[in-house]
């Protein structure tokens, strides 16, 4: 056989080996796989488990947006960088993709566009929370927040309220105090006050926990208080369920609620409905209760990372603890109270001449 013929045969054989190797399942061609989940992570912070971008920075929603539409453009988008989506990104679960004014794509959570905050510098920072009462951290539970007017017993205050993911106000029911890990609102009550139900695979998440209803469904609770909507609210910011029958109150992202006492009417309470008090002449800048006073009158303590919310502020008391104040007056319990209806501390005198009075909304 001629040398030239042999070389041709060997060349053809080697080419077949190379082509076979290229088509082998063990050596696939690189694939341009599409993104099928949003570029977000879950992270535990002082505010509970929240969503973050892949660099660990907190994500926020903007209450001036509309579901499916961003109203943060220009300088706003410089301070609040949108969480951008790739052209080939694919929606999934609670995460969708919206189109911004400039035609670019942005990720949204339950329809609400997601953003970072330019002043957050490290993972776990949540300094954008409640900026201008419009920006709120994106929680992994189906809860958000809104700044709304609340009329309690004829007095109107603007406060931060808990809402569902559609921004409808959430409420608590003081009759739930008589139910252990469940709800006292069932049947017709639940038709008027729809419970904030949880998915079957939901688990407790920081201050948000689960209770089991009479029908064995799961319901979200905040600091132990089951959460409900009110059928008569029609728009975000509505709080028409406040004070209904003196047993329904707006749920706030605070360790504070309200209770209708037989002696003093509606008072501020903690989330177990234990009465809260103030000293009538004390302010956060002029603290009177110190030393043994703080034993008889335990302060309503705050956690590191808690932020001021409307009339509720955080300060450092005379014992070096973080404490909540309402309208600049420090909040306390009285050791002589045992039940939700107790107001035994009202009218007692402090050695300074100041008087203890129930805290009123």
Structure description:
By secondary structure, the chain is mainly beta. It folds into three domains: 40-137, no CATH class; 143-250, no CATH class; 255-361, no CATH class. Helix content is 10%, strand content 27%. It contains four helices and 21 strands. It has helices at residues 3-23, 75-79, 188-192, 293-296, and strands spanning 40-45, 48-53, 60-62, 95-99, 105-109, 112-113, 135-137, 143-152, 155-164, 171-173, 208-212, 218-222, 225-226, 248-250, 257-261, 265-269, 277-279, 312-316, 322-326, 329-330, 356-358. The protein has a three-stranded antiparallel sheet with strand order 4-5-6, with no helix packed on it. A hairpin with a 2-residue loop joins strand 1 (40-45) and strand 2 (48-53). The longest helix has 21 residues, at 3-23. The termini are far apart.
Briefly note the structural class of the backbone.
mainly beta
Uncertain ranges? 1-35
Integer-rounded radius of gyration:
28 Å
Envelope shape: globular
Distance between the termini: 106 Å
Q: Give me the number of helical elements.
A: 4
| Average pLDDT figure | 90
Instruction: Name the strands of the widest sheet in spatial order.
Output: 4-5-6
Number of domains: 3
The percentage of residues in β strands lies in 25-35%
Give a quick account of the main beta sheet: strands, pairing sense, barrel closure.
Answer: 3 strands, antiparallel
Number of strands: 21
Q: Can you write the helix and strand succession as a string? A: HEEEHEEEEEEEHEEEEEEEHEEEE
- Summarize the amount of helix as a percent range: under 10%
């Amino acid at each position: 056989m001629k040398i030239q013929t042999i070389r041709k045969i060997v060349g053809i054989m080697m080419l077949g080996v190379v082509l076979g190797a290229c088509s082998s399942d063990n050596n696939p061609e690189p694939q341009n796989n599409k993104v099928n989940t949003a570029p977000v992570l879950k992270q535990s912070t002082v505010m509970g488990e929240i969503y973050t971008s892949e660099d660990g920075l907190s994500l926020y929603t903007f209450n001036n947006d509309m579901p499916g539409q961003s109203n943060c453009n220009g300088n706003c988008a410089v301070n609040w960088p949108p969480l951008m989506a790739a052209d080939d990104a694919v929606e999934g679960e609670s995460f969708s993709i919206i189109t911004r004014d400039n035609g670019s794509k942005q990720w949204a959570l339950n329809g609400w566009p997601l953003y970072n905050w330019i002043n957050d510098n490290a993972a776990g920072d949540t300094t954008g929370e409640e900026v201008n009462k419009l920006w709120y951290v994106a929680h992994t539970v189906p809860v958000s927040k809104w700044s709304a007017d609340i009329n309690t017993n004829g007095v109107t205050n603007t406060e931060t309220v808990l809402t569902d993911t559609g921004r409808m106000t959430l409420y608590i029911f003081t009759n739930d105090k008589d139910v252990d890990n469940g709800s006292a609102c069932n049947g017709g009550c639940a038709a008027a006050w729809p419970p904030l139900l949880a998915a079957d695979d939901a688990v407790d998440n920081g201050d948000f926990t689960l209770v089991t209803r009479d029908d064995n469904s799961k319901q979200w609770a905040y600091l132990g208080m089951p959460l409900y909507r009110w059928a008569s609210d029609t728009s975000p910011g509505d709080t028409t369920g406040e004070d209904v029958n003196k047993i329904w109150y707006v749920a706030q992202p605070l360790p504070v609620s309200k209770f209708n006492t037989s002696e003093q009417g509606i008072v501020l309470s903690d989330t177990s409905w234990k009465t809260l008090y103030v000293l009538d002449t004390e302010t956060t800048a002029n603290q009177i209760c110190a030393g043994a006073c703080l034993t008889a009158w335990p302060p309503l303590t705050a956690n590191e990372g808690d932020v001021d919310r409307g009339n509720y502020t955080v300060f450092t008391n005379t014992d070096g603890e973080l404490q909540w104040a309402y309208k600049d007056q420090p909040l306390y319990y009285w050791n002589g109270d045992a039940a939700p209806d107790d107001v035994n501390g009202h009218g007692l005198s402090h050695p300074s001449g100041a008087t203890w009075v129930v805290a009123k909304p």
